[in-house]
Amino acid sequence: MTIATGVSSWRDIVAGYSAVQASGAAQPVFSSTSFNGSPGLTSDGIDDCLVCTDAALLTGLPAGDAGGELWSLAQNDNLAGATFFDLFGYANASQSDARTIGRIATPVYGRTVFGTGGGNVSVGGTTLFSGRRVIREAYSSAGTVLFIDGAQEGSLPGTPATAAARVALFARALATPSNYWTGIGAAFLITKPLSATKAAVLASYLMSRRNP
Questions:
Q1: Whole-model pTM above 0.90?
Q2: Each residue's pLDDT tens digit, 131-187
Q3: DSSP string, 122-188
Q4: How far apart are CA 112 and CA 127, in angstroms?
Q5: pLDDT at 2
Q6: What is the Cα–Cα distance from 145 to 148, expressed in whole angstroms?
Q7: DSSP code of residue 2
């Protein structure tokens, strides 16, 4: 992690991959207390984001219709805006090959997207994404399931056809980032499919960080 006025490199604690941002104006800001008294990265919703294009990471991500999960512990500070905003995910060229978690426009509920090759499937939740939330998306060859704070909120069938040229935090993971997140991120995780027991343990851990 490199900190000046913003974070230029955020290192994965598992394998050391770095999500980076060279532009000082677009660097999220780190604070040891910003996330309810705990560490967090703050994104301004204008152009802040971090992107990883490390080939060793990308080749290991669940792609095509392989099962996998996205998790994040984050805070949303924007309850307006007539568009979708992306918190975390990966993609190649468009939403048609992406896996993304974020929020929908109105009402401001959690949201997930997965590409199907010729289009994408979007699943919205039923809980207002205000303040701090644990958002989880479980993908499989049969479709996707959205969870907020440990509870299932929505699901849709479909066969993912996804790819990964980059992973993005706080923005849509395209060659030119967009749909920037306004708020604070405390944890970002990509996993293989988790058993119900393992998912419950991880959800409990993240919920304990949400409400220390």
A1: yes
A2: 899 999 999 998 899 999 999 999 999 888 999 999 999 999 999 999 999 999 999
A3: EEEEEEE--EEEEEEEEEETTEEEEEETTEEEEEEE----B--SEEEESS--SSS--S--EEEEEEE
A4: 13
A5: 52
A6: 10
A7: E
